[in-house]
Task: inverse folding
């Protein structure tokens, strides 16, 4: 058995240092429970600390969005290339095969549709998230919306309470207030509010000065892809976000509305996990598309 001097000598070189004492691969997560860290490690690759999330939750307020008319035909072929799938519970149960074995970011709030122009959302029961084996629960915050801000912040707070009890991380999604500019000041405020109220991950938009948004948020940020862009432009968006400190991307329309979605999601992954430049990734996209 090694004596105390041997252990001290070994610790100088990292030998014998307990794994539990090593820093977690995501910022702001060192003090989370084992279950939280395990779920986050499924979503965010421990080797890169990054994640490519495939978002197809649009239908819960928008109906059959272009590219999402048939989940089985449009989305199913993309699932193997994503690190995490973001969807509603209805689509998860009806259209995502249980043997896909991908972590799920479950859209955990529900309410009105685009027909009403409101966001009167409520959160689902955490037990349903447990039954569905969700790795993350996602809740929208309407920061800057005088009618809905307080309710959506309260939704996040309750979801964070439930998540902490059962070891399920919560993602706060920053919706853009109707009277708010899409700038770093607004997104810094919205992202910080998410983190301060218990979000373990924040999903927001990329903007000029994004490095300030990341610096002011104590938990990992993933960016939303937003509206459809040309493929090279979307890859540049990913590249800038990752370079400015984002921990991943949650891409939807810029993948499933692409001319070649399978090639696009692989190109996005190359930017996020391999550090490819937009030009290199676009060349990869074209190569895969030709096949």
Result:
């Amino acid at each position: 058995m090694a004596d105390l001097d041997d252990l001290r000598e070994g610790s100088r070189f990292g030998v014998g240092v307990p794994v539990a004492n090593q820093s977690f691969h995501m910022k702001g997560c060192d003090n989370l429970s084992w279950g939280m860290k395990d779920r986050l490690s499924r979503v965010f690759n421990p080797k890169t600390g990054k994640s490519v999330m495939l978002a197809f939750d649009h239908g819960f307020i928008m109906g059959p969005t272009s590219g999402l008319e048939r989940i089985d035909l449009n989305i199913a072929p993309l699932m193997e290339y994503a690190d995490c799938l973001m969807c509603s519970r209805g689509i998860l149960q009806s259209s995502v095969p249980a043997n896909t074995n991908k972590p799920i970011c479950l859209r955990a709030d529900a309410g009105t549709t685009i027909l009403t122009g409101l966001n009167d959302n409520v959160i689902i029961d955490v037990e349903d998230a447990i039954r569905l084996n969700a790795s993350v629960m996602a809740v929208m915050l309407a920061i800057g919306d005088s009618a809905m801000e307080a309710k959506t912040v309260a939704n996040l707070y309750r979801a964070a309470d439930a998540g902490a009890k059962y070891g399920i991380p919560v993602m706060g999604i920053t919706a853009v207030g109707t009277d708010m500019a899409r700038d770093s000041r607004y997104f810094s405020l919205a992202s910080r509010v998410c983190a301060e109220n218990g979000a373990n991950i924040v999903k927001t938009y990329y903007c000029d000065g994004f490095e300030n948004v990341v610096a002011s948020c104590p938990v990992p940020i993933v960016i939303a892809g937003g509206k459809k862009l040309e493929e090279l432009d979307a890859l540049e968006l990913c590249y800038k976000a990752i370079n400015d400190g984002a921990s991943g991307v949650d891409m939807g329309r810029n993948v499933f509305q692409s001319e070649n979605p399978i090639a696009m999601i692989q190109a996005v992954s190359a930017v996020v996990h391999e550090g490819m430049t937009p030009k290199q990734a676009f060349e990869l996209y074209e190569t895969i598309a030709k096949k």
User: Anything to note?
Assistant: The chain has 13 helices and ten strands.
